[in-house]
Design goal:
Helices cover 55% and strands 10% of the residues. The chain is an alpha+beta fold and 481 residues long.
């Protein structure tokens, strides 16, 4: 089959491939194929990605990797001995340029055809020889990529590795797909209960990559329709039992999904470029702050079913659902093994998603200062979630004027944040040691309280020098005898 022009151009322009071919003999090159995501991305973008997946049909992946590592003065990392999978970390001689990761493995059955039939999706089952002379596309991956279809190779492949159930939706979100093949959705619905048969670390990586995409809403809905979303996070099932009320026009399940829709379709497109850029900050390859924020949207009311009560007035109440949701989110993240950093950030968003509602341009400066200091670096994230929540809460008691007014308040808080962040960069007037020496106090929590009070007054402009701070402390804190 002829090589697609974008792929042919990518192979021709890539400066790494001639070096690899030069280091290997002609026979070895004839047995080496670039496969999977590298081929898919090259067709989509016209460039090979930084990292390359390759297979050899000669059954000598380890020997080839050792040759490349030696010749390139690179690092060799065994990945999966049984599958003959090894990584070569090829460091660039160009300053600040990241290394290339070449993952090399033995093709299944030492056959490119047998190897491709074992892959997950048609768009990931394409291959091209290292010399660019042979292109393989036995499952019409090129056609599916062009038309935006996500289609599995076979149900058997999903049975063998249930992580592929989640990868269906991750690739739908990250390749700008338009639909998932009905047969593939049917396989997911039938097999969704097997998802947790694979390691949590693998699941959370695919999950967070999915959430980091710019348009996750339709695919989260599709996950919900075939049961995979509840298989992944069973705690979401209880949200289906919480009906609409005077504040919410949707039941809790659909309100939760609506938050993601509003975040992606309304809030982010209209927010300032600096906050859009803020959300592109990476946690890991393919995982960004946007992914963590989207996770926060899905978790923000997870504590409501456990706190739901109907008052004598007929009003629905969920007292403390933010705190309960915080604890539930930590447990969910622990099960997913997201790591403490991501877990704490998602839980923080859940715990404080209602907090911005208490502040307006008329709030006291001290009150606003405490808001920004409590929210810290996550101030933009909390405010963006609060905006999405406001837009998703349109029950009969909520007027357009109320929504507009509160969105204006959140936007005002967001515009004030850079100035507050700049203030926080100013060095504190005193250190803990200064306070202990000044007041003859031992080390302890009370020193932290003093530091906090002095810092707050400094940021409010009430204390401007170290001498001012010392004088204030001597007047308001009793020294030891």
């Amino acid at each position: 089959m002829d090589c697609p022009q974008p792929l042919a151009n990518a192979l021709k322009q890539d400066t790494r491939l001639p070096q690899l071919r030069q280091l290997l003999d002609d026979d070895a090159c004839q047995h080496i194929y670039i496969v999977g995501g590298a081929v898919r991305d090259a067709i989509t973008t016209g460039q090979l990605p930084a990292d390359l997946d390759m297979v050899t049909t000669a059954g000598n992946a380890m020997a080839l990797a050792q040759t490349l590592a030696k010749q390139l003065n690179s690092t060799l990392v065994p990945l999966h001995e049984e599958l003959g999978m090894v990584r070569v970390v090829w460091h660039s001689h160009v300053k600040d340029e990241p290394p290339t990761y070449i993952d090399l493995s033995d093709a299944v059955g030492n056959s490119i055809s047998e190897d491709l039939v074992r892959r997950d999706l048609s768009i990931n089952a394409m291959a091209v020889s290292l010399n660019g002379e042979q292109f393989f596309d036995p499952y019409d991956g090129l056609s599916d990529l062009t038309t935006g279809v996500i289609r599995g190779i076979s149900k058997t492949n999903f049975v063998e590795d249930p992580l592929r159930l989640l990868r269906v939706f991750r690739f739908a979100a990250t390749t700008d797909a338009t639909n998932i093949h009905p047969d593939t959705l049917a396989w997911v619905a039938e097999l969704n209960h097997t998802l947790w048969n694979v390691a949590a670390e693998r699941i959370q990586t695919e999950w967070l990559k999915l959430l980091s995409a710019s348009n996750t809403y339709p695919w989260l809905c599709a996950m919900g329709q075939c049961g995979l979303l509840e298989a992944l996070i069973p705690e979401l099932t209880a949200t289906k039992a919480i009906p609409p009320n005077s504040h919410h026009h949707l039941d809790l399940w659909h309100h939760t999904l609506e938050l993601v829709k509003q975040l992606e379709a309304t809030v982010l497109p209209s927010t300032a470029p600096e906050w859009q850029q803020h959300l592109t900050q990476p946690f890991a390859p393919g995982i960004t702050k946007k992914g963590v924020l989207t996770f926060g949207c899905l978790m923000h009311d997870i504590g409501k079913p456990a706190t739901h009560e109907i008052l004598e007035t007929g009003r629905h109440a969920f007292h403390g659902h933010d705190k309960v949701g915080d604890e539930m989110t930590i447990a969910i993240c622990k099960r997913l093994k997201t790591g403490n950093t991501i877990a704490k950030q998602v839980a923080f968003l859940v715990r404080w998603h209602l907090y911005p509602c208490a502040f307006t341009p008329q709030s006291a400066q001290k009150s606003l200062l405490r808001f920004y200091r409590r929210m810290g670096d996550l101030t933009p994230d909390v405010l963006l979630l609060a905006m999405a929540d406001r837009l998703s809460t349109r029950g009969p008691d909520i007027t357009d004027a109320m929504v507009s007014e509160q969105l204006d308040q959140f936007n005002w808080l967001l515009t004030q944040y850079p100035a507050m962040r700049e203030k926080e960069q100013v060095p504190p007037l005193l250190s803990g040691t200064d306070i202990m020496q000044l007041l003859n106090l031992p080390q302890g929590r009370h020193i932290g309280d003093c530091l906090k009070q002095v810092r707050e007054k400094q940021l409010l402009g009430e204390l401007t020098t170290a001498d001012d701070a010392k004088q204030w402390l001597q007047q308001h804190v009793s020294p030891t005898v």
